[in-house]
Amino acid sequence: MNIGIDKINFFTPSLYVDLVKLADARGVDPNKFTVGIGQNKMSINPITQDTISMGANAALPLITAAEAETIDLVILGTESAVDYSKSGAVIIHQLLGIQPFARSIEVKQACYGATAGLMMAKDYIKTHPGRKALVIGSDIARYGLNTAGEVTQGAGAVAMIISENPGILILEDQSVAMSQDIFDFWRPTYSDTAIVDGKFSNEAYIDFFQKIWQEYSRQTSLSLDDFTAISFHLPYSKMGRKALNTIIETASDATQKRLLENYQHSITYTKDIGNIYTGSLYLGLCSLLDFQENLVSGDRIGLFSYGSGAVGEFFSGKLAENFKEHLNTELHTALFADRHELTIAEYEEIFNESLPTDGSTQTFSNRFDQAQIYLDAINEHQRHYHKNN
User: Fold this and answer.
1) CATH 3.40.47.10 residue window(s) in the chain
2) What distance in Å separates the CA atoms of residue 233 and residue 244, rounded to the nearest whole number?
3) What span, in angstroms and rounded, lies between the C-alpha atoms of 382 and 40?
4) What average pLDDT does the segment 346-371 reach?
5) What residues does the Hydroxymethylglutaryl-coenzyme A synthase C-terminal domain cover (predicted)?
6) pLDDT for the residue numbered 95
7) Which residues have CB under 8 Å from 186's CB, separation 6+?
8) Left if phi > 0, otherwise alpha if psi is -120 to 50, otherwise beta: which for 303?
9) Which CATH superfamily is domain 3-169+327-387 in?
């Protein structure tokens, strides 16, 4: 049975900051941002967009009436949860009108969460032919104003329908995962922002990639020459390239050229959105599929997922027949066309807005928010979302 990604879509809030202007405001050479880490813009979420609303907005265009009746499993991967107990997937399930007899759960392991959900969904479909799963990675990367990590912030979500006979990517069975208890990046429950050992985090990412790739290659007998492209988890657009550089010389000249060209296609969206944690690997996949016109059915795509703390996994898939007919390229183009640039003062004002923590009632203005689904109010510690018809 062929199982994989039948549909895929992403969402990012309509607000962004130009990183050249941010660099000027912070007294930093803009090349440090645009060249050093390879970022141009950074998506900013208004207070009306959180993990739940972004995930629902990413999934909404994928959910037809028929899909809503065949989805049995809703998994939200996130490290930006809004509740310690209740799964955001339960709310997304309701917002999307999915049939009631479904499991809805939330998965956490830093940026690896959506991949864990994807693997769970694949196993579910294998034992439930004809049924489908919805997997979402939704996050807000937040480090604080005028901090070292500020430029690697971002916000967004990616949603995927997982099914048999998928329209886009047929997942291959062999994958290699690895876990190690380290402190390269983490966020204690008492902190609104993450704690990062930047140098160690980069080193850990590369170390995981090298070890996992070596084991994957040993188990499968596949080499880089067998891949058309590799999509990476991208906390910033240069990170995956750093890892790829450590093994690329093992490939033929033609393969090196192909992988590096396709890597550039895979980072286009990340450069203008920033880090979206659990969704970033799949945002890179969307970018590759939308911008590389030379891809054909049967091309093998490698995917490297990494979540600090740490868990990594390398897996692969082959492009399905007529996969281009299932892409949402026009929708993605329209999403970027509707974005609004913030001044640095507006960005800082939005960043400092906060939600009530005492159960008091607060309603929100969506002056910056044109999304179909958004946070409308908080009342008695409960979040209420509005969905435009």
Assistant:
1) 3-169+327-387, 172-321
2) 12
3) 36
4) 91
5) 253-385
6) 98
7) 110, 194, 195, 308, 309
8) beta
9) Thiolase/Chalcone synthase (3.40.47.10)
Q: What is the predicted pLDDT for the residue at 192?
A: 83
Kindly name the residue from 67, 93, 111, 313 that is annotated as catalytic.
111
Neighbour order of strands in the sheet with 41-44: 41-44, 15-18, 340-341
Q: Is 286 a catalytic residue?
A: no
**Active-site residue, 233 included:** yes
CA-to-CA dists, residue 224 to 177, 207, 220, 243, 265, angstroms: 18, 18, 12, 13, 18
In the annotation, is 111 catalytic? yes
Residue labelled with tokens 């509707």: 338
Residue-wise pLDDT for 214-256, tens only, equals: 999 999 999 999 999 999 999 999 999 999 999 999 999 999 9
Q: Spot the catalytic one: 93, 106, 150, 233.
A: 233
Annotated binding site for (3S)-3-hydroxy-3-methylglutaryl-CoA: 29, 143, 242, 275
Residue with tokens 């044109």: 370
